[in-house]
Input
Amino acid sequence: MSTVHQRVFVCEVRFAQFTESADGYSKKSVKNEAAKCMIDFLLLPPRSSCLSRGGREFETARTSANLWTPTGTFVEFKTKMGSSNIPKRIGIAMIGLGRAGNIHFSNCLANRRVDLRYLVDYDVNKCQALIDVNFLDGTQALSPDQLKIALDDEKVHGVIIATVTSSHEELVVRSLTAGKAVFCEKPLAETYDGTVNCYNLSRKTGCPLFCAFNRRFDPTHCKVRDQVVSGVVGQVQIVKTCSRDAAFPSIEYLKTSPGIFHDSAIHDIDLTMWILGEKPIVVSCFGHAFHKEVAEIDDVDTVAITLKFPSGALALIDLSRHAAYGYDQRLEVFGSKGMMQSKNLSSSAISVSNDKGISDDMLEASFKTRYQDAYKIELDHFLDAVVGGDLKVKEDETLAACRVAQACADSIRSGVPVRLEWT
Output
């Protein structure tokens, strides 16, 4: 066996062990991704080349840290730590290893730019097991009450927060105060004012604050938006999004979530506003709880949202917590010159044709697989921001999405449309 094959084999075994201890990951797919990452690393060309990520191309160059990064991305990284030099690897502390945390953990492992220094979770044994099985000799397992150790570490440049919503604001504030860049799952806080406070602190400390609206980084959605902006469909008249979960979320998760509008619909709201480049002036919403346990926690599981924008464009958002046929994620933009669609992705490209008809494979099972590319790209985007790059998700966009999500909740309770004014 050649040296290259031996190293790829070791990488595959290592990731296979990890997948056995992390729910929701395909052993085969993660092994293949691990092998792909190792092959990419071993076969990097010795000169600048052109790579493609998320449907866009950019020039790359080898840095002094022996990493491949977008030209011009690495700039001086100045924080309270007093560092004015480009870090060879970006030190990360990860807080939370639940649904989203497992995804970010896997992506950090596969990303050569990340120095994963701390895993923080109430289940310290789980953290240590992941550290051991992945041979992360430089990574330390901490409980939440030991977080100060990570925040005091000058080699930690950024913090990834993937905990329950109720803890987001406190963790964001503590991390920013410690001079760390912050990647946080939405929402940043449970209230609009809390979100404003987080961004105010980000400006005061000079540390980047990234609210992870990951669908903006999906290559297919990005291409639709780029084409819309370039005028391919003409004047946009209607935007439709459909988001239906495959497996019904556990009631334990729903009890700790901020409700369907701030937990789920906010993704579609942000995506729609991002594509149109404007904010809605009228919000109307209807919904129902078809699952008794959802009604008991004063939430709904099926929603229809209508948004009207200053340009006259309408947006229709169709949302459900459960679709028996798979993870249904569709986007359609209709305009004066035509229509564009971002269709569902199947778990494979297999199609069977026989005397019973034509059948395709099942849809992707969940957000973990459907948006796996988006999660990787948004991590790279955050790493770019840590070292001086511009954030694509702006403060006013995050605040607008929060405000519209709340208007949806208000509309469904009052039974009447909510009018919004923007300054």
